[in-house]
Amino acid sequence: MEIFLWMILAFLIFQRLGELALANRNRKWMVERGAKEWGQGHYFLFILLHSSFFVCVIAEFVWTPYVQQPFFYIALIGFFVLQILRIACIRTLGKRWNTRILVLPDEEPIRKGIYRFVKHPNYVIVFFELMVIPVLFHAYLTALIFPFLHLLVLTVRIPAEERALQERM
């Protein structure tokens, strides 16, 4: 089981690195079309949060004896569902998906797919990922702390994003 978990962890790290590369390509594409970036001052908080998250998951996984709990399979199903929802967010936004706040002038926010139902679905998905992923690795302290830290960062991020959308024209 531990090898399977290391494979999941490797997948997640490569996924996040791939998403950063995609975000950089999308950022370049949007800037070439006149996009303005907002909230650069708090972006480092996301990098710090997500980097620390992986360090803490690995540390707890390595430093505590692994005992598979009955709710492991529930967490695993939750993990796969969250991955599907994450991909849906990225696909719905297409080249406009980014880890930064970039707004193209004179374009309305996208309101299709999952965005018809939830205004900031990716933030909701990440919140639950920050709980579910550590549970897979029996990193329960990480599962308690990081969703809370994510919410703290969002108290800065979401208002900045809302301002950017309001002032885009």
TrEMBL record:
Keywords of the record: Membrane, Transmembrane, Transmembrane helix
Coiled-coil ranges from the UniProt annotation: none
A GO term from the CC aspect: membrane
InterPro entries to which the protein is assigned, alphabetical: ICMT_MeTrfase, Metal_cation-efflux_comp
Entry annotated with the keyword Calcium: no
Localization of this protein: Membrane
Chief localisation class: membrane
Gene3D superfamilies per record: 1.20.120.1630
GO MF, one example: protein C-terminal S-isoprenylcysteine carboxyl O-methyltransferase activity
Keyword Membrane: yes
Bilayer topology annotation: Multi-pass membrane protein
TM segment ranges: 6-23, 43-64, 70-90, 120-137
Matches recorded under PANTHER family: BLL3993 PROTEIN (PTHR43847)
Protein's name in the database: Isoprenylcysteine carboxyl methyltransferase
